[in-house]
Amino acid sequence: MNTRRRPYRVGLVVPSSNTTMEVEIPELLRRQQLASGQRFSVHATRLRLQQVTPEALSRMNETADAAVDLLCDAQVDVILYASLVAVMAGGRPCLLDTQERLQARAASGGAHAPAVVSTAGALVTALKRLNAARIALIAPYRKALTDQVAATLDACGIRVVQSRSLEVVDNVAVGRLDAAKLLSLAAQMDFSGSDALVISACVQMPSLDIVEEAELRLGLPVLSAATASVFALLKQLDIQPAIAGAGELLRRGATVRAGAVFP
Hints:
Elements (H helix, E strand, L loop, with lengths): L7 E8 L5 H16 L3 E8 L6 H9 L1 H10 L4 E4 L2 H5 L2 H17 L7 E4 H11 L4 E6 L3 H13 L3 E7 L5 H5 L3 H9 L8 E5 L10 H8 L3 E3 H12 L11 H5 L11
Parallel strand pairs: 1-2, 1-3, 3-4, 5-6, 5-7, 7-8
Helix pairs in contact: 1-11, 3-5, 6-11
């Protein structure tokens, strides 16, 4: 029985144009609460981003430290930097440096220092948990950005054997994409050489409603930026995932150990 008196406080740093993570993350945590009794509250702050271009992503990354400061003021227990491509576009060094920089920033705030995870690092953690060394991936970005995500995953020991890019630059438009069309696109792909499918390699592209159905139809583990993020958040809080309707990763979870996330 869970005896914690107050909810776990989860901080989100999201792009200003994001309309998805503040829907999907609380919904996944609500399902965790139903299964286990743990309570959560979610608190977000935003970083300016309208167009998904390398220049705009770089500028957004440069402002992330201040967002961490704001969430530390709320004394959250864990912070998620919810932007996958902004970190992965910089390669594995950016993935490591961003994690270290934001964690150090959180630690500099005083006695209450929350753990910090990134969606980019969370995806690596989740794929390794699933023993997925070869994956398929769907992303809304232009192909050049999707290729950079694939190259970063490859540097982390995960090969993207096939990918689909939807070529959408306007981040608000990404949030309005039809998840059912994602499922249709996935059904056209060949998964014979893949260990898993990342059906939404983007924090803004909605996919939660189709993750479970995609697994049943395609016969392999399916995850998204959101499900990987929640897996990493729960690991940092030392909580066993027990979430229904969101894929194998969160359904059966893992024997978790606090801090056991990328890198």
